[in-house]
Amino acid sequence: MSDDYEVGYGRPPKAHRFKKGQSGNPLGSSRKARKRQRRQLLSFADVVLEDATKPVRIREGNRTSTISLREALLQKQYAMGLSGNRLALKFSLQSIDEAEHNKREQVLDLYEAALDHKENYQARAKYWSDRGRGPLLPHAEDIHLDSRTGEVKITGPRNHGELAELKKLLQTREFLMAELEGQHADIEECARQGCPRTPSENEIVAVLENHLNRCDNELSSRGWLPRVAGEKEAKKKKNQ
């Protein structure tokens, strides 16, 4: 090759050309390379946890189902324990006891945090309001505690995004209720005057009731009460 070799498209410098017998992509395809690099970065514990969530198929009688490897191993361990394997029985009972203990701790931690939030709500809400952060959520009125079971139930929005959704839902609900009330008033007035009820009136009422039911179902699915907690008190303070 002559010394006046020109570098350009399809003509790389001699020092950067692929060497004969050596792949231009020693790591393989980009997808495989990324997967290998990712697994190299993961710790052993991460790899174990990742593999434990992989789906496996199991057969129970004539029925097959797909569960995680972790669930399959637990089921196998329980079955061995029930069949008389003392070691499997011991580990099964230990895992159940640990799970129950952890669950109780989680319930207690959540209950104590909710109780603290509820008891100190007024002071913290004022702190937020004084700094222009908007209402503190969830509102104390939306937090319901059962000291016997440790259950915490929240019947309102937990953040400002949910608060905006609730307000929009309540505005729609209020509009539908007002329209329904007007439609029923018109129908009753026509009935007093001896006017027959038309199919279109029935259709309008049915459509409004359907949309109202959808609003109520949305509130129910989210566990929200049909009101914004603390809104009336806030309006009173503002008007004073």
How would you sum up this structure, described in words?
The mean pLDDT is 85. 60% of the residues lie in helices and 8% in strands. It has a two-stranded antiparallel ribbon with strand order 1-2. Strands 3-4 form a two-stranded antiparallel sheet. It has 3 domains: 41-84, no CATH class; 95-153, no CATH class; 155-234, no CATH class. The protein is extended. The chain has 240 residues and is mostly helical.
Secondary structure layout:
Elements: H1 30-41, H2 44-52, E1 55-60, E2 63-68, H3 69-82, H4 86-119, H5 121-130, E3 143-146, E4 151-154, H6 160-192, H7 199-222, H8 231-239
Helix pairs in contact: 3-4, 6-7
Number of strands: 4
Q: Helix tally?
A: 8
How many strands, which pairing sense, and closed or not: the largest β-sheet?
2 strands, antiparallel
Strand content: 5-15%
Please provide the ordered H/E string of secondary-structure elements. HHEEHHHEEHHH
Shape summary: extended
Strand numbers in spatial order across the main sheet: 1-2
| Helix and strand composition category | mainly alpha
First and last CA, distance: 94 Å
